[in-house]
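Weekly modeling sync, notes
Attendees: AB, CL, MP (scribe)

Item 1: holo prediction request
CL wants a bound-state model with fe (ii) ion before deciding which constructs to order. AB pointed out that an apo prediction alone won't tell us much about the pocket. Agreed to run with the ligand included and paste results into these notes for async review.

Input as submitted:
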Amino acid sequence: MTKTDENLKIAFSDESQTNIEYLAYAHRAIDEDMMEVAQLFREAAGAEVVHALSHLRVMGVVRSTRENLREAAEGEDLEILSMYPKFIEEAEQEGRAEAARSFRVAFEREKHHRAMFRKALGRFG
Ligand SMILES: [Fe+2]
Ligand SMILES: [Fe+2]
């Protein structure tokens, strides 16, 4: 992997995270009755999506829908089999009930995502 390949991965992660953070900040700004700032965060969040999508395109990770479904099902599988069970256990060990609950909500829903991706994949025969 070249330096630029590594940088694309980092930039993609950063832009993706920033998108979600800005969306959360926009919600907060609305709660604080600062609509102008909420608009700014929402608009910037949209631009971060464009940046992330552009990096992704250069990275070449978006393939045919059939391949994307397989990739998505495998990604959900990884979260279900190893990531979330471990994270839930560790959060409980550390007495982090809120984190454990957040992980569990996602964990449960990933099963649905995996099932739906597999079902869609099945249509390809
Ligand atoms: Fe950006
Ligand atoms: Fe998911």
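Recorded for review: The chain is about 85% helix and 0% strand.
Action items: CL to compare against the apo run; MP to circulate these notes.
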